[in-house]
Structure formats: structure tokens, C-alpha cells
Amino acid sequence: MIRGLALLSLALAFPAGAFELSFPVDCSLGDTCYIQQYVDHDPGPAARDFTCGSLSYEGHDGTDIALPSRSAMFAGVNVLAAAAGTVKGGRDGIADFAPVVADRECGNGVLVDHGGGWETQYCHMKQGSVRVKVGDEVAPGTVLGQIGQSGMAEFPHLHLSVRHNGGELDPFAPDSLTSCGPPGPGLWDQPLAYQPGGLLSIGISAAIPDYPAVKAGLASPDLPKDAPALVVWTFLFGAQPGDAILFRLTGPEGDVLTDRSVLEKTQAQAFRAVGRKLKTPEWPVGRYQGEAVLQRGGVELGREQIEITVGQ
Fold this sequence. Notes:
The longest helix is centred in the N-terminal third of the chain and has 12 residues, at 2-13. A hairpin with a 2-residue loop joins strand 16 (286-296) and strand 17 (299-310). The protein has 2 domains: 18-169, Glucose Permease (Domain IIA), CATH 2.70.70; 198-310, Sandwich (Immunoglobulin-like), CATH 2.60.40.2550. Strands 1, 2, 4, 5, 6, 7, 9 and 10 form an 8-stranded antiparallel beta sheet that branches. The protein has a 4-stranded antiparallel beta sheet with strand order 14-13-16-17, with no helix packed on it. It is mainly β. The chain is built from 3 helices and 17 strands.
């Protein structure tokens, strides 16, 4: 009963349209970017996102909008002001991928005051990309900088924090940080789909690639006809125990391999690969198609495909 009263009070504090946020990254959610972590809604030592899902970690106080690779970060993806306001603070000059320095966990970032007790903070931006300074007025969509990997960041992403009167809240569920369940309207000016996990990339190579190379954005060039093996690999996020990845590789003469890999633990990001060694003098020359399908409880969460040429 006490929690219900608290939720009612907070709901009245945030009527629809009282404060709205536009999406703060110039990307296509679910295509060229994704949400890796949400605000933690578990009051205890565990972690859960606003849907009661696993896309969070203990004490996480923001929304992590991530890029699928470092190569996407190097290409440049703009961070945008989520609402009109005045730049209250900013920092640049911290190198991407550098060791974390105390009190610099946000890395390069910007703090915007929106009035009425509302603030947004944008962290982990690329070194040298911050375009605004203290005192600047910004509108929704104003470019603040670019996504980077500065400060306490294990992958290229924007960490967005939203505060009201000094208190952190979740823009997807602003009424409470101690409960979760079916999502409400939140603070976004446009509905944002929740994706509980998915595939980020797929490739075909002549050997199992190094994980850091995959995270960096490994390409899949054509292969020679005497390649020692043909390997299909995929990079994913939001893995849970029991998730299955269905792999298939076909060539000019039909199926080369089919396999099923079952994930054993919860992982923010994961990488899996399957392959077949060359057992004849050469592979049939022609086009090869790789496919990976991520399933959870028999439901498809993502599908990626790729095609290369072997022997030409």
C-alpha cells in the first residue's frame, strides 16, 4: 500500500507532456544503434531494467545507447540535445580507450539544464568532438558532440542520465526506480521499442576471429578457394542462459554446415562462431551465404545474413 501511494504521487508529479525528451543520438534504433543497458530498477543487490528484464546492472543510473562497433564510432555518430536548455557543464580532452581517472568516469561529456529542476547529462563522448560550451543555448536536436569511448566505458556508447531536482530517474519509467513491469508512456516524445537482445553483426572468415577484432567491426572479404576453413560468426547483446543461435552456411553445392549454439550465462555482449575445415583440395567456387538466428524460448529475437565469394 505504501509503495502504491508513492507511485501515485510520482505519477501526478510527471503528467503527460510536462517534460519530453527526443532521442539523443543521430542513429536508427535497432539498426545502426541499440540500447545496451537501462536504469537499474532493483532496490537490492540484483539488477533489472524497467520491464523486469536483464538489460541493466547493479546501480546503473542511465540509459546506454550503443554502437555496434568501434568502426561505427570512428565514422562519427552525433550526440543530440534531448530537450531545449542551457549548457551547464562540459568536458573534452579525455582520450578514448584511456584508463579511467577518478572523478572522470563520465569521460568527455555535457550537462544541460532544462529549467524546472530538469537536467540531462551526456557521457563518454569522443575526444575532441564536444561542440558546445557553458552558457550555450541548445534546442532539441542540437549537436553536442559524438559518441565515443572515454571515461568508464567498455564499448562505444552514450550514457544518458536524466535528473529532476537532483534525483536520478528512468526516462522509460519515471514513476519509480524500485519497481518494474509493463512499460508506460515514459518521457520520450516518440515511443521507443524495447529490444531484450539481438544480433549486432555477422561474418564469414577462414578461421575463428579474435573477439576484439569482431567488436571493432571486422569485415568479411572474399576468400580463396583453398581457405583452411569456412567459419560463420556473430556478435550479439543481451544474452541469457538458454538462448540459442542457429547457424547456417550454404554454397554453390548446397549446405556447407548447420549448427546450433546454446548460451549458458547472462552476458551484456557475446560472440559465437562455428565452422567447417577444408577436407578436399579446394572449396567449390562461387557465392556463399551465412545466416545466424537468435532465439529465446523459441521466439526469434534477431536474424543476420551475409554473402561472400570464394575462389574468385
